[in-house]
Amino acid sequence: MSVALQLLINGLIAGAIYALVASGFSLIYSTCKFVHFAHGAVIAFSAYILYFLFSVIGLNFGFSVVLAIAFASLLGYGMNIVYNKLRQRKVSSVILLIASFALLILIESLILLLFGADVKTIGYIKVAKGLEIFGAIITPLQIFIIVASFILLILLFYFMKKTKMGKAMRAVSDNKDVAEIVGISSEKIYSWSFIIGSAIAGIAAILISLEQNLEPMMGTSLMIKGFTGAIIGGIGSVPGAILGSLLLGFSENFGSWFLPSGYKDAIAFVILFLFLLFRPKGILGVKREGDKEK
Amino acid sequence: MIEAYFIHLLILIGIYLILAISLQLSIGFTGLFNLGHIAFFAIGAYVSALLALSGIPFLICFLFAGIFAMLFGFLISIPTAKLKGDYFALATLAFTFVVYTIILNWTSLTRGPLGLPGIPKPIIFGINFTSNFNFMILTAIIALVSYYIIKKIVTSPFGKALEATRDDELATRTLGKNTLKIKSISLAVSAFFAGIAGSVYASYITFIDPSSFTIMQLIPILCIVIIGGLASLKGTAIATVFLVLLPEPLRFIGFPSSVVGPARQIIYALILLLILIYKPKGFYGKVELE
C-alpha cells in the first residue's frame, strides 16, 4: 500500500512540474499555433540565471527570483521577434518548429559555453527530513512545489477566463481573422502570450531548480515531458495540458513498477508517439484547422 | 600530421555527405520533414558495430546496417503516413528519443552509456582499411556511389513522382499514384543510407556510445540540407564541404574542446536560423521552404 501511495505522491510532484512546463507552452501554442520547442530553453536559461544571481553573485534570493522571471519573459519576447520575421513570410508551422528547434539548441549550447557541463545546485533550501504520510515520504519543499503550481495554474485559468487580455487571447486562438476585425491586434497578442507563457516558464524554472540539479540539457527533457503532457491533454488547451501532465506524471511513476527506472523517459516518448499517431487532438483538445482537410 | 588531419576531415565530409543527401531525399524531394534521421544513423552504427564485434566481415555488417535501418524506416512510415507537416516532424522526433533511450538502457546488448569500444576496422577481400588513408578511399567510394544512386533515383520517373507528392499530394493521387507507398519507399531508402553512414562512422571511430546519437547531432545535417537548398543534390554536396570545414578554424585559434563543441552547435544553429529568415531557398534550392 505504502509503495502505491509513494508512487502516487511522486507522480503528483512530477505531474505538477510538467504541468507548469506544459501550461506556458500550451498558452503560446493556443494563440500562435506552432510548437515552440525553445520553451524548454527558456526554462533552462532562467534556472541558470537564478543560479548565477543567487549562488555566484550572491544577491538576495527574492530579488534573484524576480530578475530570473523577468529574464524569462524577455527571452520569450526576443524569441517571438525571430518567429515574427518568419511569420511575415507566411511560413508553415513546420518551419516555425524547425526554427524553435534551432533556438533550443542555440540556447542550450550557450548555457554549456557559459556555465560548463557540470551540474549546478542552487542550495537555497537545506535538505529537510521528509514527512511520513501513511508510510510514504514527501519533503516540505515538494509540498510547496505542488501547492505553488496549483495556485499558479488556478491564477492562469482565472486570467484566461476573466481578464480582458485573457479573453483577447482566446479570441485570437479561436479565430484570428474575426478577432482582428473586432480590433484585436494579433501581433500584440502573440507578443503577450510569449511574455506571459515565458514568465510561467520562469516560475517553473525556479521551482524546478529548488528541487533538482541544473544541467545544460535540462530544457530538452523538460520540454519533451511538458509537450507530451500538452499533447495527451489536448494541445492548445491549458486545462488539458494540466490534466495531461498529471496523467503523464502518474503513468511514468507507476510504469517504473514494471520497467527498470531507466526506461522512465521511454514511457513518455512512447505515449507521445501513440497520441501523435492515434489521437493527435488529445483528450480535451479540439481539431486543428489544418486537420479538417483530411 | 597535417595530412592526417586532412584525411580525417575528408572522412567526416564523406559520412556527412551520405547523411545529408539521404535526408535531402526525404525532406527536399518528398517533402517529409523527417527529424528521425539520427535514429536511423544510430541503428546502423549499432547493428554494424555489434556484428563486427562478433567477428562478422565488414561487408555483411555494412549491408545489415543499411537493411536494418531501412526496415525501421519502413515500419515508421506506415503509421506516420497520414500525418502532416509538423505532426510528422514531431512523431519522427519522438522516434529519435525512443531509439536513444533504448540504446542507453538496453545495457545487456549495447553496454549503455559505457559504449562499444574496439570495433574492428574493415577488411574487404583481403584489402586492409586500417590506415586512415585507405579508409578515406573507402569512405569516398561509398559516398560517391550513394550520391550516384540517389541522383539516379531523383532523376528517374519515380523521382518525379516523389516531387509531385511533395508539391500536391492530392493531385498525384488523382493521377493514380499510390502516394502512401511512394512516401514509404522514400523514407525507407533514406533510412538505408543513414544506416550505412552509421556503419562507416562506427568502423572509423571504432568506439560508439549513446552520446553520439543525441538530437543535437541532427542540427548540422539539417543545416546542410536547408543551406544547400531543398531538392538540390549539388547544393547539398557543396554545403556539406562548407559546413564541415566552417567550425574547424576554432580549433586553430586554440580554444579548448569544451569551447569548440558548444561553439560548433551555436554556429550551426545560428546559420540555420539566418537561412530560414533571409534565404529560405538555400543557395541552390529549387523549391522554397513553406
Structure description:
- The complex is a heterodimer of chains A (294) and B (290).
- By secondary structure, chain A is mainly α.
- Chain A has a single domain (2-293), classed as Orthogonal Bundle (ABC transporter involved in vitamin B12 uptake, BtuC), CATH 1.10.3470.
- In chain A, 73% of the residues lie in helices and 2% in strands.
- Chain A has a two-stranded antiparallel sheet.
- The model of chain A is unreliable at 289-294 (pLDDT under 50).
- Chain B has 290 residues and is mostly helical.
- Chain B has one domain (2-214).
- Chain B has helices at residues 2-29, 37-53, 58-80, 85-105, 107-110, 132-155, 157-167, 169-174, 179-205, 218-228, 233-245, 249-252, 257-278; strands spanning 123-124, 127-128.
- Chain B has a two-stranded antiparallel sheet with strand order 1-2.
- In chain B, strand 1 and strand 2 (127-128) form a beta hairpin.
- In chain B, helix 1 (2-29) packs parallel to helix 6, helix 1 runs antiparallel to helix 9 (179-205) and helix 1 packs antiparallel against helix 11 (233-245).
- Chain B starts with a helix and ends in a 12-residue tail after the last helix.
- Classes of the chains: A mainly alpha (294), B mainly alpha (290).
- Chains A and B meet through helix 3, helix 4 and helix 11 of A and helix 4, helix 10 and helix 13 of B.
